[in-house]
TrEMBL record:
Names of required cofactors: Mg(2+)
Class of this enzyme: ligase
Presence of the UniProt keyword Metal-binding in the record: yes
GO biological process, one term: folic acid-containing compound biosynthetic process
Family: Belongs to the 5-formyltetrahydrofolate cyclo-ligase family.
InterPro entries: FTHF_cligase, FTHF_cligase-like_sf, NagB/RpiA_transferase-like
UniProt key word Ligase: yes
Keyword annotations: ATP-binding, Ligase, Magnesium, Metal-binding, Nucleotide-binding
Protein name: 5-formyltetrahydrofolate cyclo-ligase
Amino acid sequence: MKKEFRKKVIGDRKSKDIEFINKNSSIITEKLLSLECINKANNIMLYLDFNNEVKTDDLITKLISLRKIVSSPITLKDERKLVPTQITDLHNGIKIGAYGIREPKNDPNLEVNVNDIDIVIVPAVAYDRECYRLGYGGGYYDRFLNRLRKDAITIGIAFDLQIFDSVPKEEHDAQLDYIITETQILTPRK
Ligand SMILES: Nc1nc2c(c(=O)[nH]1)N(C=O)[C@@H](CNc1ccc(C(=O)N[C@@H](CCC(=O)O)C(=O)O)cc1)CN2
Ligand SMILES: Nc1ncnc2c1ncn2[C@@H]1O[C@H](COP(=O)(O)OP(=O)(O)OP(=O)(O)O)[C@@H](O)[C@H]1O
């Protein structure tokens, strides 16, 4: 169920051209930068995009210029663990890591304490309208999000084509605080 659904959505996203991805990524970036919670936050973790995900390079550059502490995950495959590591310059200190995804070079001095993170911007394959998340199937973010401070804010960014009335889900699947697409902002019904 999950596997088939994942494959279909990854295929749909892959079929979009670079103009679509760039245009909608920049709309989503502007929306994020106008959120009060982003402007108030000091410490923000976000992913480095791959496979036609919403692009985050411009967002990262802007957040660094706003003097935020910005980190991206190093993926430890054996432990199924994400290690948030600070990025100070997108053109320096980045390498290709697990699954061919860009990640910060390992530097224990730049590791960010999970308790210091105010906001996490999360990648996904698909979401439902209640902000439940379907990922790539490694369980990386499900495990990681559980370790955050209780008042940390989780934001999913995605294209409209990744939003469904329902997605296959299991007990451990994460529910986020906000989903932002090129046309909508979703929050779970209270
Ligand atoms: N940009 C980004 N970074 C991220 C994630 C993500 O979804 N997006 N992850 C979110 O958890 C983690 C990596 N998770 C992954 C888990 C499994 C596979 C995987 O099974 N890939 C298949 C091929 C998939 C395909 O290309 O269709 C493979 O390697 O065989 C990939 C990534 C950490 N970093
Ligand atoms: N919090 C958790 N603790 C232990 N195991 C977990 C946890 N969350 C998920 N898993 C396990 O990890 C595997 C993948 O989970 P799932 O299919 O939900 O991943 P996903 O959310 O789609 O992937 P990702 O977060 O990497 O994008 C499953 O076998 C699941 O049982």
